[in-house]
């Protein structure tokens, strides 16, 4: 079967990646049962710090990709397709020894009724064309790269995210675990 498919990445958003493709489809099916076995030892409980430490405060900003290292690189006006970096930070070096963060449930909205989820509740990007997978260079810093997009007939776009703060697990990389697996179709 063959046909032409027009791909507009979103019904309400215009992006620089919208395209038309000629598609030929083939259908194959395979059904396998796979299994494995493993022995799991009990994990000893971790001890918690006895002195309470206040939760860190967090910040979210969008920086121009070319100036992301400068002091104030938050763009005022951008164009569809411009490269930007979404940056989330929490706390200070003392907090970084105790807590880790996970960015999740990010929504882009037009200031009215139009909303689009760009990061799901597990902390995974819903569309890598709009927002890359979130990278965690430290336990309390995260960033994701993006090309500017907008809602049709709107000049402003707003972003809101939730940040989950957790006790830092005893992992090799010192960050909160995030698992984002998407099935290829």
TrEMBL record:
Keywords: Signal. Residues 1-183 form the ZP domain. SMART domains: ZP. The keyword Signal applies. It holds the Pfam family CUT_C. This is ZP domain-containing protein. It comes from Strongylus vulgaris (Blood worm).
């Amino acid at each position: 079967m063959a046909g032409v498919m027009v791909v507009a990445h979103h019904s309400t958003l215009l992006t620089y990646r919208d395209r038309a493709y000629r598609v030929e489809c083939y259908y194959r099916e395979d059904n396998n049962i796979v299994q494995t076995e493993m022995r799991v030892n009990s994990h000893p409980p971790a001890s918690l710090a006895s002195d309470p430490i206040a939760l860190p405060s967090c910040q979210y900003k969008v920086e121009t990709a070319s100036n992301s290292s400068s002091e104030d690189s938050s763009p005022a006006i951008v164009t569809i397709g411009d490269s930007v970096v979404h940056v989330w930070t929490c706390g200070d070096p003392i907090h970084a020894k105790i807590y880790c963060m996970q960015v999740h449930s990010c929504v882009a909205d037009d200031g009215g009724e139009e909303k689009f989820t760009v990061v799901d509740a597990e902390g995974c990007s819903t569309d890598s064309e709009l927002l890359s997978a979130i990278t965690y260079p430290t336990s309390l810093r995260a960033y994701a790269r993006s090309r500017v997009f907008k809602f049709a007939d709107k000049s402003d776009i707003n972003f809101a995210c939730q940040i989950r703060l957790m006790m830092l697990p005893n992992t090799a990389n010192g960050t909160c675990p995030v698992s984002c697996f998407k099935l290829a179709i």
